[in-house]
Amino acid sequence: MPDTFQYLLTSVVGVALIAAISALVYVLYKKKKFVTVRSDQDQIVGVISGSDCYEEAYKLLPEVVLILNSQSKITYLNPVAEEMLGCKLRSVMGRDYRNVISLKNSKTNRTLHDALNNELMATREAKVQEYLLQTPNNQNFPVQLKLVAIQKNEESEIYSLLVLKNISELKGLESRLSILDTYDNLTGVLNRKSFDGEVKQLIESTHKHDSSHILSYFSIDQFQEINDSIGHSGSDALIKGIVKIIKENITETLDIVARVGGSEFCIVFCERKLASAVTSIESILKQVSNHEFISRGRQYPVSMSAGFVVINNKSTSSARALSEANRACNLASKRGGDRLCSYRSDDKEIQKLEGNFEWVLTLKKAIQENRFVMYAQPIHLLETNEYRKPYSHYELLLRLNDEQGNPISPDEFISAAEYYSMMPAIDRWVIQNVFKKISMVSNQEPLPVFAVNLSGQSLNDSVFLDFVLSEMKSSGVNPRMLCFEITEQVAVDDISLVNNFISKLKTLGSSFSLDDFGTGVSSFAYLKSLDVDYLKIDGSFVKNIATDKVSLGMVQSISQIGHTMNLKIIAEYVENKEILDILSEMGVDYGQGYHISRPGPLGAVIRRHQVVKKSVTHL
């Protein structure tokens, strides 16, 4: 059945198949049944003589192979199929496949038999779908089925070739990432995106049923100071303890809890009277302040601020409700913390917070006076020999000092810029200044790469791409030195717009990196739709791989899947040698973190790359 093998060679492509074909070439050559195999535009094309040659190929393939005749009876199983199904070919030969296995479409729940008819199979087009396979031993496997019609010649009987690939590991990983898409990895409560969706539904419900709910917003007082003293592991323990207290004061089957920031939490007390909700909030604050938190043998005082807003039929959006509750919480913190404030539009302090355009003026002035500063942090190859070489890949980081020269936290001014929709103006400043500096770098091998972060607000601006192309041309920067870094959440907001941006710049030689991978929505589903070059694993997974098996497993799985998609993998938060060694042994391509190098001024990096150095010491 030569046509069978010829189809398989031209359609089932992969590393394992190439290896199998290489082995098959030798086998058939020895048996004098092989005529020629050649490469044709990255596809393998084979011509085989001899009616039994296809069996030699199927024995080498890593996938399950079955052949059914026009009566749906089994005529062939390869060894992989025998092992997976737990039966030998001789015991099932000539039996209707439905008496041996069950195949149901995972989406339509229709059986495979519905697709096995001469009219469909006569098209000779491969059908690829996901099915649930049930074996004779009642084991169930999610599989990818490739179904194609085959025949020896135009007059002969049409057979059905089934190639089944076990995708249990991929499905398991997608399931775990789906959980991460919904829940916070550390605490197990909802993440911000999922919480926002829940609030949207509640607001719609209030308009239909005239119901009301209490949305409360909590923030740990002086969290940054605590975090600086006790480190990430201590902070994680504190956050888990606070979530435990929160859960003790809610109705878990009714109320909604989420972690919406590093040290911020939200609760919706559903269908609760205001007095009852306030009692629960005050109980949480009291229990947190009485919580004896001990880290490294030292006890730390802990308190929280809280604010709330009523959700009713006058509420317009989840974003506004969250923003109003957050402002009330900020007011409670401003008044000394460890207290509760309600959102009231007529409250003078609330009005002051809402009308506070100081940030707008600060950011506009910083742009006009060029007070932003670019820093660069190496993203370095982890393979042992490459790790000894100088740095040549960097992420660019934005920094800002106030008028007195004191540093402003990036989280603070970036959040403000996003809130007041000033990110496009800042991104344009970055593009203009970075392109000019990078254009001064000498041509050298390897050519350094600089990753520039782009905001969702800029990517959603239809004229931003034209601006970037114009700045490339006017600055004379080599596009191959530019890597544009976008977060997963930004990428999925408008796939078509992002893909257009990616496509135009990749044709010029620029590359793209998908940041914070694993924390956004439907991670792998969207990854398949984005033509990126680098996949950056979110640091929340990486930082605990030395002590947490779940985090280790997630990083391993993401790395493996990324590599199968021919992506280079970058791991953030490489904070110590133990993490570095684990990542290197795992095969992660690049690392970024304080153990490798702290960020430094971009100007110094540019000057070092203006002269090609022969030294093998790090830049």
Q: Kindly report the name of the CATH homologous superfamily of the largest domain.
A: EAL domain
Task: Report the span from N to C terminus.
Answer: 61 Å
Q: What structural class do you assign from the helix and strand content?
A: alpha/beta
How big is the Rg?
30 Å
Number of domains: 3
CATH topology of the largest domain: TIM Barrel
State mean pLDDT (0 to 100 scale): 81
Q: What's the tally of helices? A: 25
CATH structural architecture of the largest domain: Alpha-Beta Barrel
Question: What spatial form do the alpha-carbon principal axes imply?
Answer: globular
Largest sheet: 11 strands, mixed
Poorly predicted spans: 1-52, 613-619
User: Total number of β-strand segments?
Assistant: 26
What is the level 1 CATH name of the largest domain? Alpha Beta
* Proportion of beta-strand residues: 15-25%
Helix content: 40-55%
Structure in words:
This protein is of the alpha/beta class and 619 residues long. The protein has 3 domains: 2-171, 2-Layer Sandwich (Beta-Lactamase); 174-354, Alpha-Beta Plaits; 358-609, Alpha-Beta Barrel (TIM Barrel), CATH 3.20.20. It is 43% helix and 23% strand. It is built from 25 helices and 26 strands. Strands 16, 17, 18, 19, 20, 21, 22, 23, 24, 25 and 26 form an 11-stranded mixed β-sheet that branches. A 6-stranded antiparallel β-sheet has the order 4-3-8-7-6-5. A 5-stranded mixed β-sheet has the order 10-11-9-14-15, with helices on both faces. β3 and β4 (74-77) form a beta hairpin. α2 (15-30) runs antiparallel to α3 (53-60) and α16 (423-438) runs parallel beside α18 (464-475). The longest helix has 25 residues, at 223-247.
